[in-house]
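chain below, 428 aa
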Amino acid sequence: MLFVFPPLIQAGLASGQYEVVKNAAGVALGLARDKATGHFVGPAINMVGHGGIPFNPVAVPLQFAQMYQTHQGFQAVQVGLQGIQASLGVLQTMAALTGVGVAANVAISAVSLWQILKLREEVKLQRLELQEGFLDLKQVLSGQGTAIIEKIDEAVQDLEFRQHRQALAQAYGRFLEATRQMKITMLCEDLNIRNVGLANIRQTLTHALADYKNPHFLPETNAVTQLRRAECVWVIEQTIAVTYQLQNQPEALSNCLEQLQDRICEDLLVVVELCDSEEELDIIFPEITRIHEQDLVVLQCWQEQVDWQRSLSPSEQKLLQAVASGQPNVTEVSAAPDLAIPSEQLLYETLKQKSHLSALCDALLLMLQTEIRRDYETYVSQQAEQAGHKALVGANLQQMSNLSVANLYWYFQVRDESEQEPTEESIR
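prediction:
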C-alpha cells in the first residue's frame, strides 16, 4: 500500500526533499514533511494498492484527505458523506433484491462487486436517482433480459419484499435526515449549539442503525443478503464516527473506528459461514477480499492518524492544522475511482480454477482470522510427515498463501475420510 500526494508534494518526495511521516511504531501516516525543517507540507489524497490501483473501498467511501481536514468544518467531509449516501442507497437496493430470493434468478453480474462500484459512481454523478433510498431495479437490471424484469415484477408484488423495502426505506430516511441536519448544525458558530446538534444527530443515526440490525427481518437470510445488510450497518457506523470527528473528540473517534473494524471482521466471518453455494461464493469472495484489503486498511489508517495526532504537542497540532487548511479542497484533488473489472474479481476467477468451495471459503476464514491459520498449518505438517511429504514443514507452510494452505488442508481431510470409510471386506 502506497500513498498518493498532490503533484508538488509527490515531486518533493521523489527528489528526497520531503518524506512520509511515520508514527512511533514506524507506520506511515499519509502525511509529508520537509526533511530539513521538519515542517508538515500536506496530506495524501489517496492510497493505491498492488499494481498502482487507487483505493475505492466498498463500504467506507470517506475521502482520504478528509481525515486531516476536520478543522475546516463540514465542507471537509461533505463530499465523503455524499459518497456514503450513494453507497447506502446502492447497497440496500441490492439487499432488497437478494433478500427475497430474487438473486437466485439474477445473473451474478447484477449483484457483483463491479456492479456495486459502477452503480455507486452513477449515483454520485447523478446519472441514477435514488427514490426513498432505492434505485429503480428495472433500470439497473435492464440489460439482464426479460426474464429478470418479470421476476422483479413478481417480487415487488410480494408482501415480504414490500415489508422489507419499507423497513429499509424508513432507516434510510432517518439517515438522510441526520445528514441534512449535519449540514445545518455545522453552520452554527456557537460550539455548544453545534455539539448538542451533533449529539442529536447521533441519536437519529442510532435509530437508523437499529432498523438495519433488526433480526426479525429475513432471519433466514443468505450469505449475499447478510453481507449487504452488514455493509449498510457499517455505513451508518462510519457516519457516527464522522460526528465525533466534527466535534474534535479524537479519543471517542479512535474507539469508534476500532469497534467498527472489529464489527466488520465479525460480520464477514458470519457471511463466510453462511456461504453454501458456488453462486454465493462468486459474489462474496471478491467483495470480502476488497473489504479486507481496502476498507479495513483505510479505517486502520484513519485510526492511526487520529491516535498520532493526539500525541502531538499543542504547537505541532497548530502546525498541522495550518498546513491542512492550505491544501486544495478534496473535491479538486481526489483521483477518479478505477471502474475497470476489479482486480479481486479477476483474481477470484483464477483461483476458482485451482480450488473448490470449501477450500475457498476456508481461505477467506484464514484471511480474516490469522490466529487459526496455525492450526491448519499444524494439521497439514503432521499429515504430510506421515505421508512422507518432507517439503511441507512449518517454515515452508508459513510462506504459502491462505488458499494453498486451505487446499492442502482439504486434500488431507478428503484423504483421511476416504481411508476411514469401511470397505466391503470389513463390513463382512
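The two ends are 62 Å apart (CA to CA). Strands lie at 2-4, 18-22, 28-34, 40-43, 46-48.
thats it, cya
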